[in-house]
Amino acid sequence: MELVESSPATEHHPEMNREEASGESSSSNQLENWTEEQDQLKKKLIAHDDFPWKLPSSPTELPQGSETLKYVGGVDISFSKDDSSVACACLVVLELPSLRVVHNELSLLRLQVPYVPGFLAFREAPVLLQILEKMRDDQHPFYPQVLMVDGNGILHPRGFGLACHLGVLAHLPTIGVGKNLHHVDGLDHSEVRRSFLLKENEDEQVIKLVGNSGFTWGVGFRPTLSSVKPIYVSLGHRISLDSAVEVVKMTCKYRVPEPIRQADMRSRAYLQKHLLGLLKDLGHTEWKTEH
DNA sequence: GCGACAG
DNA sequence: ATCTTGTCGC
Question: Which nucleotide does the CA of A82 lie closest to, via C1'?
Fold first, then answer.
């Protein structure tokens, strides 16, 4: 019901009322459909290393035939403060080990699907997938070997967050990076912070996120031992948790890994620039907050 | 039943 | 997600 009421795109559709009168709200139908789709896609999830390259930090040698990880992608979407349906999606590709941005793709668009906790992928995955597919179809030389996603992987109520969703659809190795903890299986962010403060963990950069069930959902990660607020890393697709953490370590200059941080900054900047352009086009010669 | 809930 | 100023510290 909240979904219908808060959705400008559907609030004037009379057919919605019939569904609700029959006791079957369209929004609960939608959530059922989405849940079913997640369960179906989850069957294709690959939770181990499944790629031709190797990590630069790999202890094994560098023999013939196996290339080293060089191009790491990052995706994020920023939203307008005035109209939350106006968004800018960004894909960046960074070169290792320099962390130099070698590619940058932006897309300004309007998102109709609302954000529902546990169903972020249905809002954000379509655009990101489109950008990825275009780059792949163009045989772009910087097409990423692994993609870092601003959102969780299997650290999710049904074990299939945005990073998994996007990974499966794009058939690309992905890593989920959350800036906040999605509370699942008894996991709690204050517990994670307490763990980092324990004497026994004072030298640990990584804390396993083991839920009440005993399952390891991912890790809490702090870029420095003095960092207060960790990020939450979980496997998305075609990569193990250990390898995912290695990639995060290689790309972390600040709290948020560079690929995601760059995508975040660039999408936000592009959005700002375009919104100013729109205001000018509409003839608003004065757009200060005070008159 | 009530609250909590990635971006 | 977004709003929002300065401030403390390496």
Answer: C2
- Residues for chain A: how many in total? 291
For A234-283, how does the pLDDT look when each residue is reduced to its tens digit (9 = 90+)? 999 999 999 999 999 999 999 999 999 999 999 999 998 888 776 665 55
Q: Which nucleotide minimizes the distance between its C1' and the CA of A264?
A: C1
Domain boundaries, chain A: 1-43, 67-281
| Protein CA at A211 to nucleotide C1' at B3, angstroms | 20
Q: How many Å apart are CA A235 and CA A176, to the nearest integer?
A: 6
Q: Residue A192 CA to nucleotide B3 C1', Å?
A: 21
**CA–C1' nearest nucleotide, residue A87:** C1
pTM exceeds cut of 0.85: yes
Residues 6+ apart with CB under 8 A from A54: A60, A62, A66, A67, A68, A69
Nucleotides of B under 7 A from a protein CB: 4-7
Q: 3-class SS at A101?
A: strand
A67-281, CATH topology level: archaeoglobus fulgidus dsm 4304 fold (3.30.2170)
Question: For residues A153 and A99, what is the distance between their CA atoms, to the nearest angstrom?
Answer: 23
What angle is formed at CA A251 by the lines to CA A151 and CA A200, rounded to 5 degrees? 85
